[in-house]
Write a structure and sequence with these properties.
- The chain is mainly alpha-helical.
- The chain is 66% helix and 6% strand.
- The longest helix is centred in the first third of the chain and has 29 residues.
């Protein structure tokens, strides 16, 4: 026989809360691990952690923050996720959140380790970041007023009488 349950009870709420938080952090830890791997790092049970260069710290913070925004706001466009993650980076929130996750992992004895390819992959990432910073921004689209002005000018010139050349 099936009995009705009060799902608003504390024991059920506690289990739901733990499950939701675990899945929320598993997603962020996946982003952390994926970005670390892309840059030649991995997580392992170890007594010490690899040195974390600034570019690695920045990329790990960015990856986890971006993934967090994708998860929390799935219907927003990618540009919004990018802008929001940039804002959290400039405020320092993303870096602090990433540091907190790394500290929680360290408390479990899990620390970031460097693979032999890390140096080359980080150098390539630094080059990519410098190149990205030096690119000129995309021109903004024309406003309605500019488009309207262009169209009016275009048709005015078309309607002007053409000078006849000698016959």
């Amino acid at each position: 026989m099936i009995y009705a349950l009060n799902i608003a009870s504390m024991p059920i709420a506690d289990k739901v809360h733990r499950h939701m938080l675990a899945s929320y952090y598993a997603l962020q830890l996946d982003a952390l691990q994926t970005e670390a791997k892309r840059l030649g790092y991995f997580f392992a049970q170890a007594d010490t952690a690899a040195t974390m260069p600034p570019v690695l710290a920045e990329r790990l913070a960015w990856a986890t923050e971006y993934r967090r925004k994708c998860y929390l706001y799935p219907n927003c466009p990618a540009e919004w996720w990018d802008r929001y993650a940039s804002d959290r980076m400039s405020e320092g929130y993303a870096q602090e959140h990433c540091r907190s996750m790394l500290a929680a992992l360290a408390a479990l004895g899990v620390r970031l380790q460097e693979s032999p390819q890390a140096c080359a992959l980080l150098a390539a990432e630094e080059c990519r970041q410098r190149e990205k910073a030096s690119l000129q921004p995309e021109p903004s689209p024309l406003s309605e007023v500019e488009v309207s002005s262009f169209v009016n000018e275009f048709f005015t010139k078309l309607d002007e009488p053409k000078e006849e050349g000698p016959t």
